[in-house]
Design goal:
Structural class: alpha/beta
CATH topology: D-tyrosyl-trna(Tyr) Deacylase, Chain: A
Number of strands: 8
CATH superfamily: D-tyrosyl-tRNA(Tyr) deacylase
Radius of gyration: 15 Å
Strand content: 35-45%
Order of helices and strands: EEEHEEHEHEE
Length: about 150
């Protein structure tokens, strides 16, 4: 699985103008299930995200996790993280098929909740408007095939 984590002071996702998910201080997580990904990989990614120490401590050092700050996560499906950019028009054939992608996206969100993180989500496959206030900015790319 692939994910982009953005440390935020707030983030929300809207569909047709209505807010369907939001978080305060924490992460906006854009996540993509790749072909062949498993539930175990979704769980591994969730555990890593929950423990990632990128929030500032009293000395201003990135030393605290989501749990340490009482933060939450807004998890949004993002199949374009699978982009193959060999040509001028990206291809997405390495992303998991839609039904499998949705299942693993939801499994990741539930696994993150099981790690004690309050989670809100977007809606898989919907045309979403995502807004955020990036804190830092801190943006981290993660791939379970490379960790």
């Amino acid at each position: 699985m692939r994910a982009i984590l953005q440390r935020v002071s707030e983030a929300q996702v809207r569909i047709d103008g209505a807010v369907v998910g939001q978080t305060g201080k924490g992460f906006l997580i854009l996540v993509c299930a790749m072909g062949g990904d498993t539930e175990a990989q979704a769980e591994k990614l969730a555990a890593k995200v929950a423990k990632l120490r990128v929030f500032k401590d009293d000395q201003g050092k990135m030393n605290l996790s989501l749990g340490d700050i009482g933060g939450g996560a807004l998890v949004v499906s993002q199949f374009t993280l699978a982009a193959d950019l060999r040509g001028n028009r990206p291809g997405f054939s390495t992303a998991a098929p839609p039904a499998e992608g949705e299942r693993l996206y939801l499994h990741f969100a539930r696994a993150l909740e099981m790690e004690g993180v309050p989670v809100a989500t977007g809606r898989f496959g919907a045309d979403m408007a995502v807004s955020l206030v990036n804190d830092g900015p801190v943006t981290i790319w993660m791939d379970t095939d490379q960790s």
